[in-house]
């Protein structure tokens, strides 16, 4: 984006020339050519870091205060200004996809970006920039020439998704799943259902699991799932020694899909992806072939082979739905298998109940041993104590030492909510 184009967007003139590399809200990340957006938060006011940003090479900055600096662009509200830029960049896209859900958002985003890049110049939400600040920032940084935007939309309470879709107005709206997640802020599962359903306020088409179709209304719906009436029907899915394989049926035609990801839920994510291809009228044959090369990012189910261990790094986040899927998937892997779980956070009044349920699910699985970490996972430990090989540790280093001491070939699945930072266990294992 040219500096003059930015100033014109706000009806102002500038003598500054040049191109803006990226919009950034963290002065520590500023590089030469970036434009700084100081956000006023509850703890810090980004305006106090404007000088630092300029010293690092920022070509300009928004400000809510009068500033004589020639690179300053005075606005009423810096976040609203960033949102204005995001909307401006969004309008240049051919189409956009919005994705939300209790679990599976990021994997679906990664898969869709991977597949659609064969047909369009794509851009997707980097990392977890999916909230009221991250989403406008994501849109503001859409590269020139991008045709398709794939955006992850996060929600912690009623109204969040409604606000985000009002900014990006995606033509294609995907709901990956609904379950207990962020119920501490939502208040109840019913509110989660309602809040996630805000994704369908507008758009040309809604894509969602057939099992929850009855909760929502949309003028044009594509469903996916194992139910007989699903538009994208998952006929089978199973774990093999290379990942997950299965058969997906669209209309009268079936496709055998193999993907190097150890995750049974990945076929639900693929159901959404194939729903998008179906809506766009794209033959999925090329996508089926390309999926054999797909790789998940760290923390999202990436497979790490270290000595006698196969470690599945699923540490980015956790909720009851995704933990149940982890147990189900690990149960299908051959050989000795151990699950390592940290607390599922933000469950509010449901927390004790949901952690106890984790213990019961593992008890009824063929998983050989379970290791728990965190105040809430103690409830899962208490359910399993005496019924299965089970351990409870208060230090991550103890968990890393225990796993490193294993001599037998073992698959280790490690998972926990973002705040538990379970990836530190993996770092300690591979560094020892």
Rounded mean pLDDT is: 93
Q: Specify the overall morphology.
A: globular
Total strand count, please? Answer: 19
* Structure classification: alpha/beta
Low-confidence stretches: none
Task: Tell me the helix content.
Answer: 25-40%
CA-to-CA gap between the ends? 46 Å
Number of helices: 15
Strand arrangement across the biggest beta sheet: 6-7-5-8-9-10-11-12-13
Brief digest:
The protein has 432 residues and is α/β, with parallel strands linked by helices. Helix content is 32%, strand content 22%. The protein has helices at residues 3-9, 50-55, 78-90, 105-116, 134-140, 160-168, 183-186, 189-196, 266-280, 285-290, 320-331, 351-363, 377-384, 396-404, 423-431, and strands at 23-24, 35-36, 60-63, 72-74, 95-100, 122-124, 148-152, 172-175, 205-209, 221-225, 232-240, 243-250, 253-259, 302-306, 309-314, 336-342, 369-373, 389-393, 410-415.
């Amino acid at each position: 984006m040219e500096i003059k184009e930015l100033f014109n967007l706000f009806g102002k003139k500038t003598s500054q020339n040049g191109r803006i590399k990226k919009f950034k809200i963290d002065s520590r990340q500023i590089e030469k050519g970036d434009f700084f957006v100081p956000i006023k938060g509850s703890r810090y006011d980004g305006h106090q870091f404007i000088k630092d940003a300029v010293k690092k090479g920022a070509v300009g900055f928004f400000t809510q205060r009068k500033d004589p600096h020639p690179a300053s662009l005075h606005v009423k509200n810096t976040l609203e200004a960033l949102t204005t830029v995001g909307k401006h960049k969004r309008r240049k896209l051919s189409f956009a996809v919005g994705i939300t859900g209790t679990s599976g958002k990021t994997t679906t985003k990664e898969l869709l970006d991977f597949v659609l890049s064969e047909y369009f110049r794509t851009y997707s939400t980097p990392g977890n920039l999916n909230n009221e600040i991250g989403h406008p920032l994501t849109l503001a940084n859409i590269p020139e020439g991008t045709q398709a935007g794939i955006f992850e939309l996060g929600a912690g309470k009623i109204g969040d998704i409604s606000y985000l879709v009002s900014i990006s107005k995606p033509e294609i709206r995907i709901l990956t799943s609904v379950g207990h997640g962020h119920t501490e802020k939502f208040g109840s599962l019913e509110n989660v259902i309602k809040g996630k359903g805000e994704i369908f306020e507008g758009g040309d088409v809604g894509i969602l699991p057939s099992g929850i179709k009855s909760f929502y209304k949309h003028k044009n719906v594509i469903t996916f799932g194992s139910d007989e009436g699903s538009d994208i029907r998952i006929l089978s899915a199973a774990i093999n020694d290379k990942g997950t394989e299965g058969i997906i049926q669209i209309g009268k035609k079936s496709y055998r899909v193999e993907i190097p990801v150890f995750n049974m839920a990945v076929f639900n994510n693929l159901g959404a992806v194939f729903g998008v291809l179906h809506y766009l009228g794209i033959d999925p044959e090329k996508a089926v072939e390309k999926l054999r090369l797909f790789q998940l990012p760290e923390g999202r189910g990436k497979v790490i082979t270290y000595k006698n261990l196969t470690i599945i790094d699923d540490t980015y986040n956790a909720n009851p739905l995704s933990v149940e899927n982890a147990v189900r998937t690990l149960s299908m892997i051959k050989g000795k298998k151990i699950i390592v779980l940290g607390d599922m956070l933000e469950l509010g009044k449901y927390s004790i109940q949901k952690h106890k349920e984790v213990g019961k699910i593992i008890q009824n699985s063929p998983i050989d041993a379970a290791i728990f970490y965190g105040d809430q996972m103690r409830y899962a430990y208490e359910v399993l104590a005496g019924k299965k090989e089970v351990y409870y540790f208060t230090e991550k280093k103890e968990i890393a030492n225990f796993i490193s001491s294993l001599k037998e070939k073992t698959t280790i699945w490690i998972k926990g909510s973002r705040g538990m930072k379970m990836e530190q266990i993996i770092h300690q294992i591979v560094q020892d």
